[in-house]
């Protein structure tokens, strides 16, 4: 059967396994430039992410992880340095160009789900298509339903966020992040607000989407057990990349521990 999360990308070249997706060189981020409270948060970062990677971003609180994700996510512009995303030089784009590139390339999952409280799970998942197209086409609705099915929420499509558990809310947020077929999902502490069981389930879902569809993930986490289940761990300390590489064999754990079902999370 067809994989519901898979479909042709708006940017086929960026989907090619191993293609360069993110290239950061010398990225600096300064807040409150020229003011007494000026602060440089990122001190000249170099980072490359290839299509198909599943990477963790770790580091102490205040080390700049969210700032880096905001720059990567085109939510904030770097103060200096070069950023090439899916082959496009970000500094050359105007705000409309940034919005388009963000929409065509990236998906976001945050610590707090940021679902719209007055809308059903299905309406929340179709929202990116509604914003892009002005309407929800039958195709968009069908895709949203397939995605909710794939994240184990076929029975909860009509519920509002308040009628869902924290783990279910994050699964809706993941389905929404996948709606427009991103090449890269940026997840900022997506399990930070969940108990251990829900956290394992949400993380396992992202891992499964990666393994089945090839979507790249960069996941900020404080949980060393989750970082150990990523293929690559990037550690940020005080605005520098302190460590970057595959996790060592001694700390490594299988990417699908026996406690996780190999198929969809139970509903
Ligand atoms: P992390 O996500 O690793 O905890 P952040 O990227 O949120 O770190 O923050 C890194 C540093 O940047 C902190 O010192 C924080 O206070 C500062 N910072 C973040 N956002 C802003 C902002 N909009 N204005 C000023 N300082 C900020
Ligand atoms: Mg943060």
DSSP strand (E) fraction? 15-25%
Shape: globular
Sheet with the most strands: spatial strand order: 6-7-8-3-9-10
- What share of residues is helical? 25-40%
Distance separating the two termini: 20 Å
- Sheet with most strands: 6 strands, mixed
Low-pLDDT runs of 5+ residues are: 6-14, 249-267
Taken in chain order, the helices and strands follow as HEEEHEEHEHHHEHEHEE
Structural class: alpha/beta
Question: What would your notes on this structure say?
Answer:
The chain is α/β, with parallel strands linked by helices and 267 residues long. Helices cover 31% and strands 24% of the residues. It is built from 8 helices and 10 strands. It has helices at residues 12-15, 65-72, 95-105, 121-133, 138-150, 166-178, 196-213, 224-227; strands spanning 20-31, 39-50, 54-58, 80-85, 88-89, 106-109, 184-188, 216-220, 232-237, 240-245. It has a 6-stranded mixed β-sheet with strand order 6-7-8-3-9-10, with helices on both faces. A 4-stranded antiparallel β-sheet has the order 2-1-4-5, covered by helices on one side. Helix 4 runs parallel beside helix 6. 42% of the residues are buried. Magnesium ion binds at residues 65-66.
